[in-house]
Amino acid sequence: MTELRLGVIGGGQLARMMTPPAINLGINIKVLAEAEGSSAALATTQVGDYNQLSVVREFAKTVDVITFDHEHVPLAVLEALEAEGVSVQPPSKALAFAQNKLSMRKRLGALGMPMPDWAEIQDAATLSAFIEAHDGVAILKTPIGGYDGKGVRVVRSAEDAADWLANLANFGGSLLAEEKVDFVRELAQLSARRPSGEFLAWPLVETQQENGVCSVVLAPAPEVSKATLDTTAEIAKAVAEGLGVTGVLSVEMFEARDGRILINELAMRPHNSGHFSIEGSVTSQFEQHIRAVLDLPLGSTQPHAKHAVMVNLLGVDDKNDFIQAYGSALAAHPEAKVHTYGKSARAGRKMGHVTVIGDSAAHALAEAKGAAAVLLRG
After folding, report:
1. Is 29 exposed, middle or buried (0-12, 13-18, 19+ CB in 10 A)?
2. Which of 28, 62, 315, 375 has CA atoms 20 to 30 A from the CA of 143?
3. Do 353 and 312 touch, CB atoms closer than 8 A?
4. Does residue 352 contact residue 333 with C-beta atoms inside 8 Å?
């Protein structure tokens, strides 16, 4: 039997967490990492600059399919590979919308997808008019380069964005203004799609944020109507098919106070909102992503238990890497499954996560938070 070879660009924790299921499936996984000592160093790792076509081209020669730990590889590099016959999953035509939030909004609008009101901003007058039309406040985003709360501001006047407006060339020539949605909570719909078309979704989850970074995920999202479940699953399928996404897709959404379900962000790769699936689902998002990009049959997304709770381990300083607290945390919380990312400590950094599954959502949340607290205290 010829061994399947998967290449992952990016050496972060997502590539790291793809490694165990790849081994289990007998797939040769290789990683093109940005630097030595990356999170994904557990896999066969090559260090190189993913911005350089020559580097990525040589890496591609050693694998059958290219996929990603992040969405930042230049489209020109990917388009050149595709023109040479390399299988890139998700393809460049889909990643174009993940790399540019303005392009994403325009494409989702053409597909009739539900979104917050938005506008392309290229000058102070247009921004002022948008703010005035939306009760004196707006969310302003840089279309490229933003993540985990970066590249996002709440603005109440054009002066609040004077520095961005003065440097539009750094953001692709425009900014993205959106209505500030009065939402009840944030939701995420995780799904996966194969190049040949098979599509499956996981149960809808609720995500809770801390300083713009996901801190807790509740799976399934509590107290959700059947209408909302139907809507979110339909949205995920329409987005995946309409944008040509392959592999795992996370559609982050607002449940607005007025009842609307609105698309906030997209991620075309395994995502923080789906980490619960490692223990919580028959098929984890990492195994499913591998299956999908290799165009293998997808696995069941059914839950292992009634509830799964994931709590992120966000760094508190530049010293505590959790190692010294492992014993205490595991002894006090034996139901908790701890995942660390092999990263150096830094305040606010995603250093790992804890998952607990069970019949009681309250118990799972308490156990996960308890284990996280022990680890964070060191």
Report:
1. buried
2. 315
3. yes
4. no
CATH number at residue 190: 3.30.470.20
pLDDT score for 244: 97
Same domain? For 22 and 60 the reply is: yes
Tokens 């118990």 belong to 363
**Can you tell me the distance from the alpha carbon of 162 to that of 302, in angstroms, rounded to the nearest whole number?**
49
Total tally of structural domains belonging to the chain: 3
Tell me the two tokens of residue 182.
């009065």
Start-end of H helices in 194-261: 226-243
Residue 282 carries which DSSP code? Answer: S
Residue 326: the pLDDT is 85
Mean pLDDT of all residues in 108-124 = 97
The mean per-residue pLDDT over the stretch 366-377 comes to: 93
Query: For strand 350-358 and strand 307-314, is the pairing parallel, antiparallel, or unpaired?
Result: antiparallel
Across-strand partners of 356?
Answer: 309
Reduced to 3 states (helix: H, G, I; strand: E, B; else coil), residue 228 is helix
pTM: 0.95
Tens of pLDDT along 125-147?
Answer: 999 999 999 999 999 999 987 66
- pLDDT of 146 reads 61
- Strands 65-68, 5-9: pairing is parallel
Clarify whether residues 147 and 213 are in a common domain: no
Rg (CA), the chain: 21
